[in-house]
Amino acid sequence: MVEGRQRVEQRLQQLKEQVAQWATRKDEALAETENLAAMGVDAEERATLLAAQVEEQGMEMPDGRGAAAGAGPCQRAARRRDASPAADPVLAADQRNIEEQSRQLNQRRERLETDRNALNAPDEVRLANLQAQLAAAQEAAETSDARLHELQEQVPQLDEDRRAKQQDVNTQSARQADLSARMEALKALQEKVRTDGKLQPRLAGHGLGGLQGLWSRIHIEQGWENALEAALRERMGALEVSRIEMVRAFAADPPPAKLAFYHPPAAGVPEAAGALPRLADLLRLNDAGQKALLVDWLHGCFTADTLEDAMAARDKLQPGEAIYVKSGHAVTAHSVSFYAQDSEQAGLLARQQEIENLEKQLRAQSLIAEEARSALVRAEAAYSDASQRLMTARREAAEHQGRAHELQVETLRLTQLAEQTPARSAQISGDRPRLTRCWKNCRSAASPPKGASKSSTCSWPTAGSGMRSSTSA
Prior knowledge:
This protein has helices at 2-59, 73-82, 89-118, 124-195, 199-205, 225-232, 249-252, 288-297, 307-312, 348-446; strands spanning 239-240, 261-262, 301-303, 322-324, 330-331, 336-337.
């Protein structure tokens, strides 16, 4: 756009210079016209002078010339004209000057004729049409320029938004990859602990290899996993069987590690609310049988937020009851037990719940990452579309500016021509007859007709300075 404005300004400057040149040429033409007028008057005076000299010299000729001595003044001037230039050098020089002036006047007359023929007044309808086209082109150029400026401001913003969306996609994808890696690592550890134990071969030998431990089916409020494991101990990995009688074979073939089996009851009897919060109340179970089983196993297990709170409330405990804290430590009426993960089965519930939480987070993160990628696709499309429209707007703006510039130049030319043509035409119309008359007078002085000595008067205007020669010639 800046280049287009510069070109228009340069073109307007050129037009101003051309107008100045035309004005200078007009002044020069006027000066030349005045000089030619002076030359015409000078030629007329020379012609008159020559005619007088011819008559004077004819009257001074000797009488021995016979009939020529008695001829009239016009005949003597004709004979003097026909005499050899060598006989009268002054007259020959004047003759040449008159012929030169006549030639210059003729050239000027021809140039005026050419200028008159070249003067063509512009078509008013065409000029009005061009002015209307110029107004429309300027309006279109302004519209294109406004759209171009808008897109030039919009594209960088869209590019910045696209970069931000790309950064967000990278961040969300990295977070998704981190969650997936943590979940897979925990799953691998959980599977290794579950299958690498000593119990699996013995269970497989009794046809119970495919059973899942209780820890895989229960959920507890986050943070209380160690407390539940401390309260249930080996029963955390208890296996569900359809009938308890099925496990009698293990009495004759004892397992190599602690092992528990259970058959969930149909329903449990609700317990009355106690003075202390129960650990069973923190369970999140949908199966009534499992809930009844765990309520039975956790009978007499209560909770406290801190060890100090548990020790302060131990006087409220009955025999066989205990208070557990989140870390798994237990306080009874007469003892305190500190929990530690001392076997390969420890931490199964915590890891399982963490895996489930990670699965939820991973699903949510997958949706977030997918939305970020969709936003990036939309941002890329918006940026690409705006970039294409910016290129088109630049091209259209350049075309409209060029078109407006062409119409402006042409309109200015026709307007100036319309203003200058009438004045120039009137000047030529006034100068041409007088120039023609002066030219004819010069021709008559250079070649006067036989039998007469003619003197004409030229009314060509002068500027006060001239090319007039001294009459002493």
